[in-house]
Amino acid sequence: MIDNLNLIKPLLNFDDEDDFYMLYVFKRKKDQSTDKANHQSVRTIRSYCIKSVEQLEERYDEIKMLCEVFKARAYMHIQKQSHKDVSLDMLVTLAERIKCGQHKQQGLFDTVVGQIKTNEKRWIVDIDTKDDSIVESIINTIDNCKPIRSRAFVTTYSGGTVNYSLDIVTKVIQKIPTKSGYHLITEKFDVQEFKKQYPDIDIQKKNPTLLYYPDSIDQIS
After folding, report:
1. Reported confidence tier of residue 179, pLDDT bands at 50, 70, 90
2. Residue 170 gets which letter from DSSP?
3. What are phi and psi of 102, to 5 degrees?
4. Whole-prediction pTM
5. With helix as H, strand as E and coil as C, how does the chain read?
6. Looking at the 3D structure of the chain, how many domains does it have?
7. pLDDT digits (tens, 9 = 90+) for 38-76
8. Which domain holds residue 194?
9. Residue 32 has pLDDT above 60, yes or no
10. How far apart are CA 127 and CA 200, in angstroms?
């Protein structure tokens, strides 16, 4: 079981009543025990618009129960969205669909939420290892990619001379455990520079991170 609630809560910023974060409980194809050829790659059990930390905490037992019963995972976006922006885009998308002869609108909200730009630029660097030395090396590489931000500290003061040292400010906001490694939640950085050293590491610019992974998945035979 992996429970990342306390790691994700500090990432949520509700500056306006219009703000929300999407949360999904879904089954992945590889977590299903029957003939996998007949399954969708991802099947959504339930989705939530999280409007406050309090709401997330109130619904969390329900979310965990759904994960255990359906052998599903809970994932949460850490990029904030706006109800106003989504509503306006839904109007445009709805009009375009009707014009093209598409009159069944199930899933319109989820479609628009998945396409519209988010209000926070946070990326997920998906690492498939728990080796601390490798993870630390990846974090150092990210921190040394442009743009580099640093802070100056006074180290010594003698005879009217002030000496400074520079400390690089990390771009890694949070480290979220996953089944096989970690999701590093980061600020934007130079991807091309990073890929020179780690060409095979996946950088996800609008994907959710793992909130809850139940014991029941590991009991699938």
Report:
1. very high
2. P
3. -95, 110
4. 0.82
5. CEECHHHHHHHCCCCCCCEEEEEEEEEEHHHCCCCHHHCCCEEEEEEEEECCHHHHHHHHHHHHHHHHHHCCEEEECCCCEEHHHHHHHHHHHHHHHHHCCCCCCCCHHHHHHHHCCCCCCCEEEEECCCCHHHHHHHHHHHHCCCCCCEEEEEEEEECCEEEEEEEECCCEEEEEECCCCEEEEECCCCHHHHHHHCCCCEEECCCCEEEEECHHHHHCC
6. 1
7. 555 778 899 999 999 999 999 999 999 999 999 999 999
8. 120-205
9. yes
10. 10
Amino acid symbol at 208:
P
Cite the beta strand spans of 55-160 per DSSP E: 73-76, 81-82, 123-127, 150-158
Quick check: is 75 in a domain?
A: no
Nearest to 208 by CA among 39, 18, 32, 50: 50
Residue listed under structure tokens 């003939």: 35
Cα 48 to chain centroid distance, Å, stands at 15
Residue 7 has which token pair?
């790691």
Identify the bridge partners of residue 124 per DSSP, sorted by sequence position.
Answer: 185, 204
**CA distance from start to end of the chain:** 17
Whether 167 is in a domain gets the answer: yes
Give the chain's mean pLDDT. Answer: 85
In a domain, 180, yes or no: yes
Does the residue 62 lie in any domain?
Answer: no
Single-letter residue type at 96? E
Beta bridge pairs of residue 115: none
